[in-house]
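Hey all, quick one. A colleague (J.T.) asked me to put the zinc ion job into the tracker so the inputs and the structure tokens live in one place instead of scattered across chat threads. No bug as far as I know, just bookkeeping. Sequence used:
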Amino acid sequence: MSNQENNTISSDQHGGCLDLCIDSTVSWPNGHELKVFFMNPSEYSQELITIVKLAAKTWETYANIKIIFVNDQESSDIRISLQSTQGDGVRGWSVLGRHCESRRYDEPTMSVSVGRLAHRKAIRSVALHEWGHSLGIIHEHSSPACQIVWDRDVVISHCGGNLHKANTNYFFRAEENKTRYSPFDPESIMIYNIKQIFMKNYIETRRGEDLSDTDKQWAGIFYPFPGTIQ
Ligand SMILES: [Zn+2]
């Protein structure tokens, strides 16, 4: 999931059925303290940093993960690069879960690019989505529970003929024995809002501006709080 994603929720690209899916091979230890560093924060508006921080705290409400913001880049687990762009788009990518540990300390593990005219809610949606990846959660449409049948030619064309991008962002389907997953959730923050023409069997996806009820529930199943009955 380290590929650049088009995460503009106001359009059609980004966004699960009641489904949230974690890659068990890269999830963090339960209760882990994630140290987060903002790269060159003075270049960005304080409001943008606050939105990204609050998105992290939203996941922390439902998952037993501690997210702390540090000034020491070398000891950080997650490094966030924020960029300002033209227009109203919001794009992002994030390294998946513990794959962050194999990145050099001077490299970002998450990126959020924000247009000068971007709406606050769109930024929050993308930030929540990328934080999900940082916790090891994959795209809802990559879950073993996803029943979408892709119209491959249409999707590949949408990706500019880039088969690697189409595979990574759309066609990839995770293996059951490497994941834990809920039933499919078309409202997950981890799904794209997928165009009807991309599918041979239309399943409406409705990614919103916040975690879905299933996202909240399954975040606590992947990362359970002490005393929680699973
Ligand atoms: Zn994504």
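Adding what we noticed when we looked at it: The CA atoms of residues 79 and 107 lie 7 Å apart. The first helix runs from residue 46 to 62.
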